[in-house]
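Sample intake sheet
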Amino acid sequence: MDTDPAPTPKVQVQFVTRHADIAVPPAPILVPTNLKRYGLSQIINHLLDTPTPVPFDFLAAGAFLRSSLDEYLTQHGLSAESVVTLEYVRAVVPPKFRAAFQHDDWVSSVNTLSADGDAPLILSGSYDGIARVWNISGQVVAEASGHTAAIKAAKWTPNGAGIVTAGMDRTLRLWSCDPESSAITPLAELLGHKSTVTHLAVDPRSTHILSASSDSTIGLWSTTPATPPPPPPSSLLPPKPSKKRKTTSTTTTIPRYGALALLTGHTGPASAVEFDGKDATVAYSAGWDHTIRTWDLATHRLVDTRTTQHPVASMCVLPSLSLLAAGSTARHITLHDPRAGASEVAAGVLRGHTNCVAALCAGGEWMMASAGHDGTVRVWDVRAVGSGSVFVVRREGGGGEGVTGREKVFAVEWSGVGIVSGGEDRRVQINETPTGAEGVEPKL
């Protein structure tokens, strides 16, 4: 005698989102417990009456739902009488490899310029002491040669009018840049650090530059000082190089200036520095002394110190969330609320890298990318602190003799060009972020 199969159990689900354009009514609805992400996406698309299906991801208790609702209820000891709250977001589309640009030495830094109406340009700094400007076709349109040791950081100055570079010769250098004529002209040499300059930050709202140095200080500089500060005494200037490097030819002596201020407080090498995303008079620095520090740039005062469990190797600002992301030498990323009233030192931890997190960058309101010494670039959604990285972007191929594909990645940036990275394999790699991702969409 045939019997009817047992009905599929159902559970009440409340769908919520932080994006007003895809919000559905908040009242809980009854759905089968055997549904997974695809079936839940169908429900949201039906409620939104979308002309073309949109893939969604779902977060439950701070982690992406990667099982059926029934399995989720069992894992968390919940009954079918519970009301499950699911936060839904547009699914992140995996970045696609687009191109790679070959260098002669390790790539330490990348920075993109995507001005309205102009073709994107990519600035790279290399251990060969040369900063290069590339067009999106992989052609070098300009070179800046002048450093006497490896470049560790390179950034476009505001409005793309020039670039600033810094490195192991203890100096910062300012350059004007005209990619159309392939002309890069040295403007000034900025002196004051006593050891390697490891990181730079440029404030788009002003003419200020910040530098982090292995000498434990944070440098504050100006691209257009009203009264240029004098350089330090000759006894404190960097030594002459032991071997010649290629330099940009010039018939004039490059002026030398000092810092507006050298901020002291770190007790070990400073590894990263950033301007606050909302207030140009506030800055943050991090270092190997297990601290993240907050600075008042108007008074040059240290106003707050947060102690971390491990040395910090990288940092980025998530301005819309009022959070700092700090990459540690211990392979994980911690999220910090730097505001004075924050009750917790760490607001969340992201785990997935298997070696030092060398670079971090924001890729939208909730998204972030990281570069690691494990040879990978990872994409994260900070809403899902319990899920690990959303995607792993591996370096494609090799960069020449001795390159195995497992080389350290030193730099990453997520911009309109896509996810741009560089490292020990001596290449700048571009991975496009397809339209529909939660991060920045390409504008090529």
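Comment: DSSP finds two helices and 34 strands in the chain. The CA atoms of residues 11 and 81 lie 7 Å apart.
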